[in-house]
Amino acid sequence: MNFTWQNIIAVGFGGFLGATTRFYINIFVGKNFPHELPLATLSVNVAGSFLIGLLIGLFLYFTPYEWMKLFLITGFLGALTTYSTFAIETFFLLQSSFWMGILNIVLNLIGSIGAVALGYKLMLYFLR
């Protein structure tokens, strides 16, 4: 990976768009409170996992410019998905409702891993 101004701008602009998208998804899905299942975080984690699966599958057949990969994966998807928010929301859920906390963990992990696999396999299927 090259340390160039194009790559830095690509990550930064992708991060700006990913974070802004996540902000609007939070508004659209609704404000989450520690005692409710945080659907906004679940949505961006599963959707982002699906998109990264698609992109990695696509990049096996099409090699874009380095800045494009950095923009899409490191910048946009890195800012769109969030592990720290998942962690704090789960921490509060576990304190208020153990089973909702466990449900949140299971849905995020299985949902995200399943979405990555689905996106990756779909892309490989359509590119054959």
Uncertain runs are: none
Number of helices: 5
Summing up helix and strand content along with how strands pair, one would put the structural category as mainly alpha
How much is the radius of gyration in Å?
16 Å
* Mean of residue pLDDT values: 90
The count of β-strands is 0
* Broad shape: globular
Strand proportion, as a percent range, falls in under 5%
- Gap from first CA to last CA: 28 Å
Domain unit count: 1
**H/E series:** HHHHH
State the major sheet: none
Helix content: over 70%
Structure notes:
It is a single chain. α1 runs antiparallel to α2 and α2 packs antiparallel against α3. The mean pLDDT is 90. It is built from five helices and no strands. By secondary structure, the protein is mainly α. It has one domain. The chain is globular.
Helix and strand topology:
Layout: H1 5-29, H2 39-59, H3 66-80, H4 84-96, H5 98-127
What labels describe this entry?
about 130 residues; mainly alpha; about 0% strand
A few lines on this structure:
This protein is mainly α and 128 residues long.
